[in-house]
Amino acid sequence: MVIISYALVLYCGIAIYFKLKKTQGLLSDGANKYQKQITIVMTAEACIPIITVLFPILLDLLTIAVGFYLPWGGKLTYLLCCMAPLINPIIKLCVISCYRREIAKVLKFTKLSHIVSPISNSVMIGPAS
Q1: Which Pfam families match (predicted)?
Q2: CB 90, CB 36: distance < 8 Å
Q3: What is the rounded distance in angstroms from the CA atom of residue 83 to the CA atom of residue 57?
Q4: pLDDT value at position 49?
């Protein structure tokens, strides 16, 4: 059932990508920007379960089938499984620009272009021409 759902997600994702590629000229620049951000978020949300669910299961199966024991394997499996609910929102907050802007305001991040450097105000003295 999981394989069918991932195949469906993959098919729909590819179909949406090609449909948006065809209609890219019809959309505004802002709409294109947000479509790209949404595509990145959806791709990441589809890939995260591979890392947080499939990898721990494969690690356990490797331990059972081959007898390859990793003393830290159980801790890694537990950590990866617990990280899924945390990683999804962090990706959304980092990728979508309006969320990023609000976080920057709250944390009072500024762009480097707004910071005046003492070097830019100084006069460079060079050899006479």
Answers
A1: 7TM_GPCR_Str
A2: no
A3: 15
A4: 80
Domain residue ranges of the chain, discontinuous segments joined by +:
2-115
Give the whole-angstrom CA distance, residue 80 versus residue 49.
Answer: 10
What span, in angstroms and rounded, lies between the C-alpha atoms of 100 and 9? 27
The phi and psi torsions of 125 (rounded to 5 degrees) equal -105, 125
For residues 42 and 29, give the distance between their C-alpha atoms in angstroms, rounded to a whole number.
20
Runs of H (alpha helix) within the chain: 2-22, 29-49, 55-66, 73-95, 97-107, 118-121
* pTM (predicted TM-score): 0.62
Sign of the four-CA dihedral 20, 25, 29, 31: negative
Supply the pLDDT for residue 121. Answer: 46
DSSP 116: P
- Cα angle: 20, vertex 21, 22; to 5 degrees: 90
Ranges of residues in the chain with a pLDDT under 50 are 112-124, 126, 129
Quick check: 87 and 32 in contact, CB under 8 A?
no
The reported pLDDT for the residue numbered 48 is 83
